[in-house]
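User: Modeling request: complex.
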Amino acid sequence: MSNARTPNWLVLYAIGYLIFLYAPVLLLPIFAFNDSAIVNFPLRGFTTQWFEGLWATDALHSAVRNSLFVALTTCVISTVLGVCAARASTRYQFPAKRGIMGLIMVPLVLPEIIVAVSLLVVLIQLGLDLSLWSVVLGHVLICVPFSIAVLASAFRNFDRSLEEASLDLGVGRVATFFKITLPLVAPGIISSLLITFTISLDEFIIAFFLTGTDATLPVYIWSQLRFTAKLPGVMALGTILLAVSLLLLILAEWFRRWSAKRSGADVESSAGGLF
Amino acid sequence: MTTAQAASGGRAWRLPWLRSDHFTGLALVSPTFLYAIALLAMPLLAVVMFSFWTQDYLQIDRTFTLANYEEAWSEPIYQLLMVRSLAIAGVTTVLTILLAYPIAYFVAFHVQQRKALWIFLITIPFWTSYLLRVFLWKVILGYNGVLNSTLEWLGLIKQPLTFILYNANAVVITLAHAWAPFAILPIYVALERIDRSLLEAAKDLGDGPFRRFWRVTLPLSMGGVVAAFLIVFIPTIGDYVTPRLVGGTDGLMIANMIQAQFSKANNKPLGAALAISAMLIVTSIALLIFWLNRRFTPGQR
Amino acid sequence: MSASGQSSEAQDRPIIELREVKKQFGPVQVLTGITADIRRGEFFSLLGPSGCGKTTLLRLIGGFDEPTSGSIAIDGRPMAGVPANHRPTNMVFQSYAIFPHFNVSENVGYGLRSQRIERGELERRVAESLSMVGLEGLGARAAHELSGGQRQRVALARALIMRPKVLLLDEPLSALDKKLRQQMEVELRQLQRAVGITFILVTHDQEEALIMSDRIAVMADGNIEQLASPQELYSRPVSRRVAAFIGVMNFFDAQVLAEQSEGITLEVAAFGKVEVPRAQIPGKMNGSRATVGVRPEMLTLLFDESDVAERELVGEVVDVVYYGDMTYYDVRLPGVEKPATISMRNTAGRRVLSSGDKARVGWGAESIVVLE
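Assistant: Request completed. Predicted assembly structure:
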């Protein structure tokens, strides 16, 4: 659409909206370095004591370890299950396809508390202990639909005749999958791994309900929020998380652009990501 | 004959049914499907079953009873929570969409070069911990918080504002912020998909910018708006963290009560009944919206 | 089995034998029973409108799908249950299917690489293939840097390097612009002659089929309407549908007056009584009504007194379209509602008529073909 001029109010709105979006987030680094135990303006000076305090906290270290374990396990399992389901859904027709895919994707529209509660009930009934593995089970459930969304889009953008051409040239089905399909779908797989990893890392309520004595990072943070004295420490932790997430995101975005260029797809058109 | 065919000896598939699309498709989807059955469908059924039982301290009594549902639907406290949850979710969703639409429109129509960058910028804040973001709103809206201290320092108010925290308003604001990108993205994608030549045709036929928006752009983007509505509304109703941190007593929602039943109040069957009831209500609303959308936007996907 | 060891009998056997091939997708019958032979070394086209089943048939021959019933044999070998990667065919896909993560050489050599051919030999054959399609020196170019025409050539090279017995082409020229398409039509024909293998082409463009093919199967509704050489299809179509699909045809209603073994006598609208020999009746006759077809170039405009034709009519010019080397006239003939199209070559000194002019139209009985 040719635009002679963009209405000023719209530009102002866009800028204002971005400020609204970023406002809370920018507070994190500001107060993480603020030399005050109370979190408000005016600022009182620069310090790194809160970060140093974090380094000394053992509970935090184990929470980080637990979160990494859960997130890594979740992202691998979800992506594997996602590849199978996305491939089945985009390539094949089979009976009850709608119902099956519907059930798999339902966690997208279920409030997480329902998922948490139902898994809890089952685990109690079966007399099983709650542990990090119960958290993984819950996380995989909510991550698989995201994995499928990303991968289905990758499979759909993938010209089917590429596989037929490979077959036609004498290469068997399995070899075709590894030579043609997988390399071209790899960006989608990496995307799925990153997205599910991040979702799991950040997820609170399922972890809250289903973890035994091992806290994940969000659960640890929750436990700290009651104590006003710990607030600056929480700010410092949040700043670190923000930096790590940013890094992951930039990596993911750079990767998306690189692979789009390599396979000749339009860089801008895949910007919507999941959708 | 090429070397490949000579070497393979023309081996043929002797079991055609093994090659069939149906079988391969089912085989591929089965691990994921079975996982969903085992960890979603079965547990949900278990919750349903649980909701028909009663709990006495630590003992679960398995006689079938509708007592929990009676309690869930007739006790004023639960009714209040449910209605409030619906109201908060509804207001939040509408607010989020109203705020999100202009920015989605801006990026779709008024950004030529770097759309991907804008989308990226919009999504960055949401890759931080959700807990922390909610907590930060508490910090911002508090009595001694950032907003109040800034306004006082600027001389705009004498006393700190109290109506902005520990009530439903705070919940709405926080959630509207939290769910922003989930509303922006579907609307953006729907707007991007609109064929620009439709707008040029409308222009050619005499419509000014506002009429073009109202008669062409808005209706064609409705699919995205409905998607945004469902994506925001459904999880919002079941949100636990935000009401807990910034809702005070007036902003508590149904999820908080469900969690209480599962821990302190120690009445898991009641919690299950509340959860199922909430789910039923939400599902009916979602289906209603979905059906309404289907009915009033013919000729679209 | 090497070609030099074959007897002349084996040489005469068709390379592809289709017998009652049917294909059904759910409730839809896409192919209703195709029986045909495709000859060794010929350029064969499947021509028809979209939905007629031509691409489906091509895919069945290539092994990307199995027929619901019926048989396909390639070089005498039945192909039932044989998947695509084991058939002596190779396909050029409509989208070209160039692997985006490989460059030109890697694409062309893809099929050979999986056969464990020694590297020097592989490189030699890739270079040979590339020069055969006019892409020598472009081996290192990335897939996304290629133009449409170049992609098509890469797809060709990639298929031909496999030395198939039959090359299948699925609407290979439809994505190209007109000038390029015309150039490729000639090149494909020359390529086929140079390589000497059977080409089977699917297209909806009758001009393409006419220019390139030795024989054409005109398809409609899952059936072959007529299988013949371009000349025969053009001058002796068996049905109105085939006649209308190929080139432009004027249709006139006719009444059968009498039928004999050597031919029939018709009363044709505007033309009057005509005796038509059997040779000009390629289709089946049913009943007393018939449709007569006359090509625009078989009718002529008579300008001077000295111009004569076997028979003559007077009509009125309704429309004139100038086309460079030809002029097309729409002339209303007496007793016929729809104006007939007559084409005249724009030779030096020839007069040109305008709308409203009276025209003398000449024709001869041998210009008529009787359909249905």
